Amino acid sequence: MTTLADRLKALIVADGPLPVSTFMQLCLHDPQHGYYATRPGLGEDFRTAPETSQVFGELLGIWAALEWRAMGAPSRFNLVELGPGRGTLMADALRATRPVQGFQEAANIVLVEASPALREAQTDRLSPHGVAHVDALNDVPDGPSIILANEFLDCLPARQFVRDGEAWRERVIGLSETGDLVFGLAADRSPPGEAQLSGDAVEVQPGLALIVDALAEREAPFRALFIDYGPADGAPGDTLRAFKAGAQVDPLAAPGECDLTVDVDFSRLARHARAAGLGVAGPMPQGPFLGTLGIEARMRQLIQQNPDAASEIHRGVADLVEPDKMGLRFKAICLSSPDLPPPAGF
Length: 346
Description:
The protein is an alpha/beta fold. It is built from 14 helices and 15 strands. The strands form 3 sheets. It has a 7-stranded mixed sheet with strand order 4-3-2-5-10-15-14, sandwiched between helices.
């Protein structure tokens, strides 16, 4: 049986070494062998904020309801999630917004998801609600939109560039003398002109600009809330990581069998958004952002309702907000159509 490693090696033999971005794209999204297409490991290989505590999705649901009202409570709007995993965040958000009069009746729930396996899981999880699946943000219907995206940007493929003396060269993946996948440097590939070069290595995610372009083309009004990890300012260096069975592993060891991720360059995302005329709020750390939305009050309410689960509830919330856990490393940024008031939480 042909594996993704076999296919990668054949591509390298035929066309030469692959950029890290191409390697990531094939490992994550190849329709036959890619990680998300064949073995999505949420809760096994990695754990996201919605899987850590129900409070996360509930607060994002309340945030969406507040922004819907700020838009004038349109009678029909798109409630969109990019990369919705198993549907946990959306399920929690919808549960929290049941008391908001008119919100769910107005919501056209759209999930941007290409993985057949995850689409099936999302449909099962959200069966009480009518949901539509699309392949990309550009496929979301026109109209007012509120877009949620948690740990979506970190999976956008990244090109890596390394300082080599006075020059910068692109990191690529080729073959060793024994036919194994190895990292190397290309002789003739330099960073794009707008890349912020510092240190000895830098990553560039071309998909950030594509996300901004897709938003800039949308009909107003819209809000797009992204929560992910990475520095608030400055480009990330070499942050490519792979996770399998809850442990960090060699990114080249098991192509297609582990999750690949990089830190998000929030400053680059904000620059592109401002240049496109979008409103930008943040980035700000996840802990303070969730704090302004009332995470402690919701935690106390849950503990009062479920005293036997008090320790588990407190531990989950602590993981979301404490500085040495997700509270500072994760950031929230909101991109909006022009002329909307500042978004809640920022």
